[in-house]
Amino acid sequence: SLLVLFVSCECAAAATVHHIFEVGYFSANPDGHETAWFMGINGGVVGPEVRVRRGDNLIVKVVNACPTEEVTIHWHGFEMRNAQEYDGAMGITMCSIKPRQSFVYDFVVDEAPGTYQYHEHAHLEHVASRA
């Protein structure tokens, strides 16, 4: 799953923006031919839209609903100034979120206005076929 994250430069007081992402498996038939299993966020291949302004505090609680896979959320294009531990590169900048556990990403958005994306990282070598 991936989705865009919008950063704007509107002049306003910094806000705290909260989201809950549940990462897990769901079945879908997106092409109308056959049902398949997908890993996604909040039951969709595309996760929720996140809109923040530069200076906002973004708090995202990630719930790992996967039965065996470890996950993280990776924020593409974010430099993660003073918050590198929240980058989401599993095994590089942070430890994974274990199955049936949760983790709270809590950082100040210090990025130029624009469109960014995020997605889950997972150790998928543990995934067998799912029926």
Describe this structure in words.
The chain has 131 residues and is mainly β. It is 0% helix and 46% strand. The strands form 2 sheets. The protein has a 4-stranded mixed β-sheet with strand order 4-1-8-6, with no helix packed on it. The C terminus is likely disordered.
Care to give the gist of this entry?
With 131 residues, the chain is mainly beta.
Using only CA atoms, what is the Rg? 15 Å
Rounded mean pLDDT is: 80
Number of strands: 8
What is the general shape?
A: globular
Into which percent range does the helicity of residues fall? under 10%
SSE layout:
Layout: E1 2-8, E2 16-28, E3 36-41, E4 50-53, E5 57-64, E6 71-76, E7 102-108, E8 114-122
Parallel strand pairs: 1-4, 2-5
Antiparallel strand pairs: 1-8, 2-3, 5-7, 6-8
Defining key terms:
globular, about 130 residues, four-stranded mixed β-sheet, mainly beta
